[in-house]
Amino acid sequence: MSYADLIHRFIDAINDTDAVRRRATIEEILTPDCTYTDPEIAVEGHDALDRAFAALQQRIPPGFRFGLTAPVDAHHHQARFFWRFGDPEAGTPAATGSDVAVFADGRIRHLYAFFDAANS
């Protein structure tokens, strides 16, 4: 699986409301010792990441989703990608940001997320 494919699958996992399918995707695309860090949380491992995604799904309005806003830029076992979050039908997203991913053994090992200022 290419690095871009892994990032697309990561976005799918964040958006997935089916707990069993989301967990299977997490285990497939992230190393067991994975880390995820953003301005609000820092988690390590499949269990913690799955709990963080489940908690996010409980907090967000129905229909809000993450989506990529540009092609994934990857080289040397790392990638950066830009995203939007909100109602896909809305012209203006609720939030935007970018992430940096570091890969190991053909999977995502570390993710570092950066949030832009929230849109109003």
UniProtKB/TrEMBL annotation:
InterPro entries: NTF2-like_dom_sf, SnoaL-like. Residues 8-110 form the SnoaL-like domain. It comes from Bailinhaonella thermotolerans. Gene3D superfamilies: 3.10.450.50. This is Nuclear transport factor 2 family protein. It holds the Pfam family SnoaL_2.
